[in-house]
Amino acid sequence: xxxxxxxxxxxxxxxxxxxxxxxxxxxxxxxxxxxxxxxxxxxxxxxxxxxxxxxxxxxxxxxxxxxxxxxxxxxxxxxxxxxxxxxxxxxxxxxxxxxxxxxxxxxxxxxxxxxxxxxxxxxxxxxxxxxxxxxxxxxxxxxxxxxxxxxxxxxxxxxxxxxxxxxxxxxxxxxxxxxxxxxxxxxxxxxxxxxxxxxxxxxxxxxxxxxxxxxxxxxxxxxxxxxxxxxxxxxxxxxxxxxxxxxxxxxxxx
Length: 254
What we know:
The protein is built from 10 helices and no strands. By secondary structure, it is an all-alpha fold. It has a domain at 69-245. The N and C termini lie far apart (134 Å).
């Protein structure tokens, strides 16, 4: 006797089969739509990545261009500052003159003695017009220490020349502060403080060599791209303060 299958059972089986087919088709449709969206997302992502890479390359290129331009400016500034430094070479003898004679006594004599004034007139062989005083253009591109040493060197040599000119014209009262020059030299060359204290003005000529060596060393560091250390920054500040000390306030003056 064969099993009897009711229409209800067939309808139920058909309904279940229909649901399975519909579910399969729906799943396939959803998967297809998801795959399409995923592909579009991947495509958009690649476009974004390409765009970001272009922006990154452009930014890096611009940075390299700016760095190259800045480096060129720094090299130019170093050349300019060294040229200015070298232009002072003709004034170096002035420190030997005022440092090896009893300058203060001879200055007082020059006020009333034409022969003494004549002596200093003969010694005044220095042409300040040959000195390049355009180092300010280099200042933004050189290290603070290089600039401070250059300023100290300039003040030192110009003071030597002006002392000779002062005596030549019979200005018997000292116009230049030797203590100020000593303060500047100690700030630039603290390792020579003992020599400066012992010899005083007479030590100035012998300090020109170490001064130039320190200046060249700082320029060499710049050419190597080495950043200034905090100690160098602090020393630069001390040198500039020694060159341009703050005027006394009312409280300190009283």
